Request: fold
Amino acid sequence: PAPNLRPMSTIGPGKPKPIPTTWAPLIAEYLNYLAAADLPNTTIATRRSHLARLARALRCPPEQITEQQLLAWFGKQTHWATETRRSYRTTINGFFRWAYRHGHLDTDLSYTLPRVKARKPMPRPTPERVWKEALLAADPRTAVMLQLAAHGLRRAEVAVVSTHDLIPEGPSLLVHGKGGKRRIIPITEQLAATIAAGAAGHTPGAPSVGWLFPGNDNGHLSPRWVGTLCSRILPDAWTMHSLRHRTATLAYAATHDIVSVQQLLGHDSIATTQMYTLVDEDRVRAAMLAAATGARHLRAV
Reply:
């Protein structure tokens, strides 16, 4: 089987939880179908995680699932953010549609879950105080993860950073993003030196070439475990994702170039980048005063 489809019998840092045996063969076949469609490993891992959680919660084989059970479980997840709910719906609908069309199930449950309307989230950048205190509290390995996140990398992108991705000129870093997309971003001299030292730079005895964070997920740490390690250091509800909001907000404040911020974060749409960018309150006030007074040359203090 492909590396991302291998059975997992134990639970540990970065290891997915096991799938119930009544679901495992069908889920494995579906994940192989996604791999054949050339979906990135990160997407396949997300689909696996969603289906594994569904299987553990419903406690019956997939052929016995009813619309009522599926709706009841989906509705009970009141703690989910809107985007999480939308992602789970995509996974579940895709799985049941595939299973029905390929003759694995007699009923198509892909029309069971209601459509989840997208909501425009408010930007929530990590405050500078929180960011600096987290760096001071972090062990050397986690500190490197936080620095990469502060350069705009997602946790899945941080997990697969390698010394081979370093571009000395600039310096810059080749980032392996969502959907198999790649981008090159500028990085600081300090971060470049850290990446050049490899895993040995933060963990004595570790390799100096290759994955920056070696682990058991195809040779590197899993994105989930990277996120867990950083969340343990960041207080309250601040996360690696809020660090991306910080990157967007600071980058836009410095340049007022939303296209450059979009490229830095690896977004397909400028609209998505705008959701990450908290506009300075003084600029909003200046815009309001200009509109209210008819002045065209008011500037934020």
